[in-house]
């Protein structure tokens, strides 16, 4: 009888330990997407935007990320997508020159974060195919946004400040 009690106690301990580990693993997995969503900073190069080397973190932005050009980029920056991409948005801040994403036949889908150029010192040119799939705001501050590629999508668009041509 003593052996049976010891075995039951040992089994209960193992089950409790397994439940605790599963609970922790579940929490980690549940929080992982939120932890991954972030600003992704453009590296100071002209590599295609689908390449990890084109971004400070070594990973291109994803659907829940904002591609950010900031002071890391020290001069005008003309780049290509390299592959179709889906980002939450684009932010241009105190970059060292105008930013241009050229047309290489790939599509940039922008999510609800839209375009934020309130801190920009230079304009933005989007020559790529642009898909506006969600309602979004483009806040251009005092800068200009040139759209020269095909634009598609059913999302609503609110423009604030700046000039679009």
Task: Please give a handful of descriptors for the protein shown.
single chain, alpha/beta, 1 helix, 21% helix, globular
What this model shows, in words?
- By secondary structure, the chain is α/β, with parallel strands linked by helices.
- It is 21% helix and 34% strand.
- It has 2 domains: 36 residues; 127 residues.
- The protein contains 1 helix and 13 strands.
- About 7% of the residues have low confidence.
**Oligomer class:** single chain
Estimate the helix proportion, in percent.
Answer: 10-25%
Main β-sheet: number of strands, strand sense, barrel status?
8 strands, parallel
Tell me the radius of gyration: 23 Å
**DSSP helix count?**
1
What is this entry, summarized?
With 165 residues, this protein is α/β, with parallel strands linked by helices. It has one helix at residues 2-36; strands at 39-41, 66-69, 77-80, 85-92, 99-102, 107-116, 124-126, 129-132, 136-139, 144-147, 151-152, 157-160, 163-164. The protein has 2 domains: 1-36; 38-164.
